[in-house]
Amino acid sequence: MRKFLIILFxxxxxxFAYSQEATDTTDYNPEKLMLLGDEYRNQFEYSKALFYxxxxxxxxxxxxxxxxxxxxxxxxxxxxxxxxxLLRKLNSIDTANIRIINKLALSLQSQQQPRxxxxxxxxxxxxxxxxxxxxxxxxDCYWLLGKRDSAEVYYKVADFIxxxxxxxxxxxxxxxxxxxxxxxxxxxxxxxxxLDSTYVPLRKQLGMVLYRMEEYKQALNNFNFxxxxxxxxxxxxxxxxxxxxxxxxFKSSIPLLRATLELDSTDTEAMFYLGxxxxxNGEAEEASNIFNYxxxxxxxxxxxxxxxxxxxxxxxxxxxxxxxxYNHFAEAFKYNPNDIKLLFQMAMVKGGVKEKxxxxxxxxxxxxxxxALKPKGSNLNPEEIILRERAKIxxxxxxxxxxxxx
Length: 406
Hints:
Elements: H1 2-23, H2 30-42, H3 46-59, H4 64-76, H5 80-93, H6 98-110, H7 114-126, H8 132-144, H9 148-161, H10 166-178, H11 182-195, H12 200-212, H13 216-228, H14 234-246, H15 250-263, H16 268-280, H17 284-298, H18 302-318, H19 322-335, H20 341-351, H21 356-373, H22 382-405
């Protein structure tokens, strides 16, 4: 305990000495402040370096070099907000400084602000700085923003600049896979594997593409490689088992699929392949038990189905996918016709499609909704009162739209 207190006392003295040194800069000229800041920066003492750069900025708020170095120190110390604030100021002063724009873009991207970062990367490209990192980072931003087509364009440019890049080939393969363009997905993944056959993400991607293309033997080669490398995740085991199943290797598929279900007992796809493998392998009793259990899992009670379809309708409505939204609200109504609000919801998504047939259907649904409310008389809850009045207004609007369209 005594030794600890002595060490603590010495550290406090050291901190006091630095504090005295750090606050006593009135006699230092700007050159000395910059020199001290640079010296501590080179010694990786970022807090001390930052103090001197900030001291200099208090005297000369437009010292661009001190501003940039202070931003670097904030970033290294994990104070990203302060770093970005200084970079924004620098960028406003010198709007064509490629180095500053790049630093600001990287900082914003690291803080999950891809939209603003993408704007800056586009600016860098316009300033003739279309190198691999810039184009690849711009593609990453588009990917995060969900702009898959734009991400694909810039990943291809980046891949052209650096033909040995594994990450661009992986991402291009994944984009093609999501677009169900399995042929292109396979090409990009294969190119990456040809460059480095030990790169696990690409071997996984190639295995999945080949599986979707029903080239099970080649897919299995990739899944077996992953298993040998220690990847015993449920997905890899399942697809390795499924490949064996489709190849008729039931004795090989069964243990893999059993292992899958030990990791994820709710995987109905793995259950199906296991039951099928057991059946083909002559183990009918266990297979039938699995299939009967599957039926109970795949046939939820009507109340649950009503809730699922209703939530899907709401989700698709938020995505402006009116046809899908209507279909799911309609399915929900089949399972629970007592929920008359679904009539109003169906009308809203039908009315969102400005076509005569859709508007007429929306009007019919709203009239059904108002008719269904009548038995309640004055016993309407606040929401029903609001929806009733909205339904009347929407019917009038639809009548006007239909009249104007004739």
